Fold:
Amino acid sequence: MKSRTHAEAYDVVIIGAGVIGNSIAYHLSEQNSQNILVIDKSFPLSGTSGSTQAWVWVHTKTPSSYGELSLFSSELYPYLERKIGDVEYKRTGGLAPFFTEEEREKALKLAESQAKVGIDIKVLSRDEVLKKEPSFSPNVVGATFSSIDGNVNPFRLLELYTRAAEKNKVDYSFYNPVVDIEQQGDGYMVHSEKGVFRTKKLILAGGPWSKQLGSFIGLDIPVKLVRGQVLITEPLAPLLNYTIGGIRQANNGEVLIGYSKEEVGYNRQGTLDVIQETANMAVSFVPALANANVVRSFSGVRVVPEDGLPIFGEIPGRKNLYIATMHSGITLSPVIGTLMSELISSGETSLPIEKYSISRFA
Amino acid sequence: MNIDLLVVGGGPAGLMAALEAAEYGVNVAIVEESSRLGGQLRQQTQYLSPLPSGIGEIRGFELANELVEAVTFNKHIVTYTNHTVIGLYEDGSVGINNGKEIIRCETKKISVATGADIQGVLFPGWTLPGVLTVGAAQILVNRERVKPGNEAFIVGSSDFSIEVALQLYDVGINVLGIVETETSLHDRKQENLYRLKEKNIPILENSYIEQAKGRGQVEKVILNQNGNKEEYDVDLICVDGGLNPVIELCQLYNCSFAFNEILGGWLPTYQANFETSTDGVFIAGNTAGITNQGAVMVTGKLAGLGAAESLGNVPEQAADVWRNNYWSELAKLENYQVNEARTCHIQNFETSKTKVYET
Structure:
């Protein structure tokens, strides 16, 4: 940007209008005390938040402290819905099947460790699985089950976050890539294609694009990109009662299926290799799906921090600079928004968040 | 399956692309998802005009039969009806589904001739049975011999929907009128307008459908004409919201796209030989811009020629001569505005390419 005579000034600028950036914006705007701008290179749902199976998934998240964070987030969902509207959050209960006896040992250990943080897991026998989910393959050996897991409609979630935030006077700038970030005293200048914004506090919530945002200010943000391909069937009669690892049936009867994880950068092309593999896997889990027509597929780029755990909080040594990037953003969105808004406005959080600091990678 | 050129879509563009390439000894496979070749020509009962030189006066379905026969007896061409391209493998080979299994096809070049999608027109009640696209109504009447209703409105006044209005009239459907939001019509075929008048089918300008009502199917329509609302008893509404190129396969091939309103919206960028920004991927017919049937056929020839040339089956000089001929024919056949838009679309490809080289 050549002309910098007219930099708009904000208290807080959030880069990234996905499920994390928007949650932070919305929760922060509830206090109605700061001028907030959310800026995005494209529009909400064009990236990771719009290409997800949208589980709100808790019970297999380890270590148990991470499970606990996910638990808190899923417990915030009904409360969030009362504030922003119906995001079609459904606590269906979740099944994670296993197919060998060895896995039962692991399942029992998981149940034991998660119990300590209040996540109630039952380890089911084959018969119990089939009783709960009769269309499941009889080859199943058992499953872990928890009633806390569920799913949400990501499109409604994002829409209602933005609507509520706009009502609270949050500004949005879409289709506006950030091209540079400059530290100025205790604040930041955010250079974007459409202009320069001056802000006291800056939050990086760019998900898969975090690495690039970090590079503007000499920060290495240790995340990987993982492509997931998801198949969607035609609407089927009720077939699945629970959210199952890899498969869920949406309200309208469509079944969403996805297991794949590929490290191919930002490439969002679908490939038949993975599509066929995914379909075969689904049929081996739920044999009745062999008769279903797949009507479309999509793929999305997810962000995975190098150690798998969320990265959020203030960046040490960089005053007023914050980051929030993680896998499972849909699950964690309400809790991250809550904690980050506490941190940004008062410097304190109602839960300890030190273990999620980016400083652990140093 | 191992082939030189895979043609996706067995309509007029695909068939012409296959015939043209086969002319130069290219081994071609045509994949068509429906049970028969011929595409939209199969239900065109009217005489087509304009058509490429050398083709006499002929009705659409008769032309389809001739093309299908030529393709069937051509030793370089194999055809697969009831086969659908469903995706691409990592190694670039094409996945084709025949309802039982997925066939892996390795091809050197591909020509995408997947045609166009007709868009709906939205109004309250548009999902009621009895609301069809004009294309669907035409298939029912001319191909399946099913009369879709008795009292009809047509929504949209393209040449095609006027044609369909006349064909519905011919099978005894009372067409109350052609509903058009515009206030003045240009570029419609004079002959068809004359026939409309003859049959007492009015074009209702400055009008739109406010609502369709009925129990389980369309029974009544509220029409807004010049701001006045009136209710009509109608059991059929045929809508034409315009045509858009079908481009999903080009998206899988990562082709670059541009928006061109006159050519039907988003479509792949391409060069004078109808090759897209992705090497070896050619496009033909309405995929390369919405135009009339005669012009569609010539774009097929251009794509077939381009593929044959890039396979080394036609010397460059000879290809250039033929390409120039086809381009002048295309200019004669298609609407001036469309041809201008197409030329401009191709120039943009060339400039964007130079830009890439410069940086």
